[in-house]
Amino acid sequence: KASIKVLAPLWYEPFADIKLDTIQTVFNTSGKNTPTLKHAKSMLSNLYDYAVVHEIVKKEKKDMISYLNCGKSNPNSIPRHIITGDELRRMCEADDKYANMMIVLTFTGLRIGELNALREENIDWERQCLKVIEAKTKAGVREVPIADKLIPRLKRYMKEHPRAGTVRMKMHEYGDHRPHDVRHTFCTLLVEKGVDQRLIDAIVGHSFGSNITLSVYTHITLEAKLAAVNLLEIC
Predict the structure, then answer these.
(1) How far apart are CA 24 and CA 22, in angstroms?
(2) CA-to-CA distance for 133 and 143, rounded, in angstroms?
(3) pTM over the 0.70 mark
(4) pLDDT one-digit tens code per residue, 112-131
(5) How large is the angle between the packed helices 97-106 and 181-192, nearest 10 degrees?
(6) Most buried in the list 19, 58, 77, 201, measured by CB within 10 Å?
């Protein structure tokens, strides 16, 4: 869907008449980052394969897609500021629902949208995990471990359900932070504890990329995830 949106300026153009320069201009002015443009380029390659098979274009035109430049940087990149130990202590000392929500985000690695979508039926308190049932990618649908010390805070969150927009404003009380900073903080804290990157990826819902051995043959248990998050110092 993201790739189709990138190519919106071309929707009503006859496919066989589209020039490579036109596609490149669409890429250059889309404001999208490199990974998104690479997905669009891959989709275009598939479309041109279909067009060649059905004699809509010649194979030579399909081969030109390889020359599309997707850029080397992310024009929408936002600097991430890891939440410091001092800022975390201030959150822990603040007895309000917004600070509590930020702590839950920080020590689960959830995206703010994933936490907002969380419902009681998606939490298994006995096994100490919550289930993300809808995500942008297949890897994003996952079981997220709930650390022992985080259980009371998550139960409090489920009763209070503070609004996400307010949390975004409250975060600035603790520093120059955005909601996604808590996810970066979570990953950083696990790395500092020596947790394997594959285990971190499984918890936060990152794919193993093109590594077939990791993506197909690696199975990470909930017990391993719980052991990892229980290494964190949670107030």
Answers:
(1) 5
(2) 9
(3) no
(4) 889 989 999 999 999 999 99
(5) 50
(6) 201
